[in-house]
Amino acid sequence: xxxxxxxxxxxxxxxxxxxxxxxxxxxxxxxxxxxxxxxxxxxxxxxxxxxxxxxxxxxxxxxxxxxxxxxxxxxxxxxxxxxxxxxxxxxxxxxxxxxxxxxxxxxxxxxxxxxxxxxxxxxxxxxxxxxxxxxxxxxxxxxxxxxxxxxxxxxxxxxxxxxxxxxxxxxxxxxxxxxxxxxxxxxxxxxxxxxxxxxxxxxxxxxxxxxxxxxxxxxxxxxxxxxxxxxxxxxxxxxxxxxxxxxxxxxxxxxxxxxxxxxxxxxxxxxxxxxxxxxxxxxxxxxxxxxxxxxxxxxxxxxxxxxxxxxxxxxxxxxxxxxxxxxxxxxxxxxxxxxxxxxxxxxxxxxxxxxxxxxxxxxxxxxxxxxxxxxxxxxxxxxxxxxxxxxxxxxxxxxxxxxxxxxxxxxxxxxxxxxxxxxxxxxxxxxxxxxxxxxxxxxxxxxxxxxxxxxxxxxxxxxxxxxxxxxxxxxxxxxxxxxxxxxxxxxxxxxxxxxxxxxxxxxxxxxxxxxxxxxxxxxxxxxxxxxxxxxxxxxxxxxxxxx
Length: 547
Prior knowledge:
mainly beta; eight-stranded antiparallel β-sheet; seven-stranded antiparallel β-sheet; 14% helix; elongated
């Protein structure tokens, strides 16, 4: 079994600097959502991704809380925050507190909400640099309440939530399609609790925001106990992908529930295993399950958010519900360092796992720690999806810090970590880039990838892969388009002027050469006439003498 270092020791796992950390950054702003009970501390797991020591400052300005941490190179630390950072019933709407994490070097931050001894979940905090202005909500059917939590990072932030389902917020009953609007200043937060499933709802703002969604406590599925906290920080719309792999959580004998949520209308969804193809409206979703022996490739014609849900304890007498983002294949990375969560609030040990998704060639040339993944096949589950190029690797990991690296730097992978104990669980994405995948130029959206990563497995419809492709991963701003057009036009004028000038100079040079040639010819003709005139009298004299 791959080994790792304790999260408490601060020892390094590797000396070399990793090539790509998409979820790492230096500034993070987020909030915690309400758990089933909020009587205990929340936790932040901080992983130093740099070869230098990290100086980390954690602040909760609304509570005048400040924490300091020195994290050695490539090591990790666990920071506790008091229960007051977690919203209570009084914070239904604008209220609650934002958490600000600032670091001197690149770090990753994972939030663990285990304020209730038997109900916890985790989320990957996304850096401020990766935030956006449009989000799609992922939640579930609540047993207590479903949740939407938003934090503003700038003053004068205007946001609108358009609900896909009916929603009761305090004394306000909203119908599907109706909206809630808020105006927030820097570090203000919004916490909304509802009695219906808001999955597919749309959040838009005029400035970047942080969005966490989930449930205070939910049964997964609705007829299996027990309930557990669900939470995840959602990536913005422009980072959503179209190609996914569904593989059940390791460590459970029960199947895993998945939801594919469409962000745009007329989204066609194809499955590699023969499931019925579907076309979804904006905010619509497909819910399906995979068992431990299945792995399914999914391709959508438009950007989607893909979520995995572990089932409740009664399904197999292990774990409990948890919710995580399954990263799209377009958001692959080449290296990732992550940390597991070891003990529950009641000191029950957590068994942790990692699922790695990508092209088979990449996984076969990847390592975890110092061990090659293909050499761990006796201890892991490794599966190819039909006859396609895609594979799934699932393996248990010891408590501590772990590093996964691909030694084929052109083809990346995605990954998510999770763990289970009795009546408890956590999960969060650990290998997920934050590239811009959808460009918006003059109100026309385009799918932007540096290369085609979604090669459809055999037997799947080829219709959905015919998408407009951009040459670069970043969007082109309309102003940039105008400036480029002006620069191109000016360049063309300059080039044309230069070519005309060179042509004129060459024509003048040819004219000079022609005139010089004509003058030489005329001089030669005159010289020839003079020679003949001199010889003619001499010949006459000779003739006369002869006669």
